[in-house]
Amino acid sequence: MSKTVKWGATDWLGVALAALLGGGAFAFRWFAIMPRATVGLCAAANAPGFCTPRHWVLSGQYYGWFGWAALALGLAAFFGGKRLLGALALGVGIAAVVNYNATQGIIGAALGLVAWLSLVSGRPGWGAART
Question: I need a surface site. Which of 1, 27, 65, 89 has the fewest CB within 10 A?
Fold first, then answer.
C-alpha cells in the first residue's frame, strides 16, 4: 500500500519559509545578540539601529513569545489542515529553539511538521485530511 506524495509549489514555499525563519533567527542571534560588544553598544546613549529589534527579540525570549507562537501555529496547522501553517509553525518552532523557548517551540514545530507531512502524503489525520 503505497501512498502518492503530492508535493507542489506551496510545499517549496513552505520549505523556503521555514528555512528563512529558522535561519534568520539563528543569524540574528549569532550576529546581534551573542557578541559581548553588542551589550555595551546597546547600553550607550546613541545606540545603533539594530538595538531596537535586539531588545524585541530578547523580550520575546524572556516572556516565551516564540514558543507560544509556535505552539499556537502548530495547533492551528494540526487541527486546521493547512500546509503553509505547518511550515510556518516549523519555522517559528526552530526560531523558538534558537531563542531558548524550546518547551513549547518543539511541540509546535512537531505538530506543524506532522500536519504538513500528513497533507503531503495524503494520510488521514485529525483535521489535516480534509483539504
Answer: 1
- Distance between CA 107 and CA 41 in Å, rounded? 35
Out of 31-40, 59-68, 113-122, the most confident range is: 59-68
Q: Can you tell me the distance from the alpha carbon of 83 to that of 44, in angstroms, rounded to the nearest whole number?
A: 44
pTM: 0.85
CA distance 86 to 9: 15
CA 104, CA 92: separation in Å to the nearest integer?
11
pLDDT digits (tens, 9 = 90+) for 43-99: 888 988 889 999 999 999 999 999 999 999 999 999 998 889 999 999 999 999 999
Other CB atoms within a 10 A radius of the CB of residue 4 amount to: 8
Q: How far is it, in rounded angstroms, from Cα 126 to Cα 81?
A: 8
Under 8 Å CB-to-CB from 103, ≥6 apart: which residues?
Answer: 67
**C-alpha cell read off for 60:** 520575546
